[in-house]
Amino acid sequence: MNLSATIVTYNDQAEALRAAASVLEHTRRHPLTLYLVDNASTDGTGPALEAAAACGRLAARPGQTVRVIRRQANGGFGAGHNTVLPSLASDYHFILNPDILLREDTLSGLAEWMQAHPAAVMARPQLCFPDGRVQVLPLRRCSLRPMVYRQLGLPFLKKYNDAYVMAGEDLTVPRQIEFCTGSFAAVRTDAFKAAGGFDEGYFMYVEDADLTQKMLRQGQVWLVPQYTAVHAWHRAAHRSLGPMLQQTRSLCRYFKKWGFRL
């Protein structure tokens, strides 16, 4: 089978190069096209990625191709990933953050798992912090109360967050889910293209929840925890006002499209 993956970058060439190198190093069982899309960085990230691909710093192995695309404007996370949509000819495509690192052939494993489960159109692996701790991420459909809890930590809302992340349920085995994080998502390429990719009306945040709902109209979405990846998870929206306001705007757009849930 043929695989493709996209890493969208903005102003952090060192992080993007580490992520790209780990993808190339560990993806060995199937042909891979890796797209590095620079979202109009202002710090020279675009030229640095081009130079790394040209000089061999990003060592593509037989069957691997690296393509660098420099956008002229920063249209946001979804727009960056949609840049490659017309070019995709793979069987399975991977949406990756630049703060992802692989330590095993997770891309091949997930693609093979999805091939063995034809109803699956989207999936993600278990994501861990660099120190090995498992990340507690949303798994149920996006709703207001757990989002408020995750921003403000109000104790009386904890039970809603527990439901949101499926706390207390066995997440060591594959499970169907309603929210697939955009930090690392595998999609069946034909289904991703049929969905039209990401909604570019979201500049940042919640566009992954939106894409999950579109993919659920075509099939099943899964957590497949036997495959793993490291995710640095910077969580900017939890640290400063600007990203938090952007997340709030995106959440309003999501509820307008898919219906409000407390």
Offer a concise description of the structure.
This protein is 35% helix and 21% strand. By secondary structure, it is an alpha/beta fold. The radius of gyration is 18 Å and the shape is globular.
Describe this protein's structure:
- The chain is globular.
- By secondary structure, it is an alpha/beta fold.
- Strands 1, 2, 3, 4, 5, 6, 7, 8 and 9 form a 9-stranded mixed sheet that branches.
- Strand 1, helix 1 (13-26) and strand 2 form a beta-alpha-beta unit.
- The chain has helices spanning 13-26, 45-55, 77-82, 106-116, 144-152, 158-164, 189-194, 207-216, 241-258, and strands at residues 3-9, 32-38, 64-70, 92-96, 100-101, 120-128, 175-176, 184-188, 220-231.
- Helix 1 runs parallel beside helix 2 (45-55) and helix 5 (144-152) crosses helix 6 (158-164).
- The mean pLDDT is 92.
- 35% of the residues lie in helices and 21% in strands.
- 43% of the residues are buried.
Radius of gyration: 18 Å
Mean pLDDT: 92
* Helix amount: 25-40%
Structural class: alpha/beta
Distance between the termini: 42 Å
| Shape descriptor | globular
Unreliable residue stretches? none
Protein name: Glycosyltransferase
EC number: 2.4.-.-
Keywords: Glycosyltransferase, Transferase
GO molecular function: glycosyltransferase activity
What descriptors fit this protein?
262 residues, alpha/beta, nine-stranded mixed beta sheet, 9 helices, 21% strand, Glyco_trans_2-like, glycosyltransferase, glycosyltransferase activity, EC 2.4.-.-, Nucleotide-diphossugar_trans
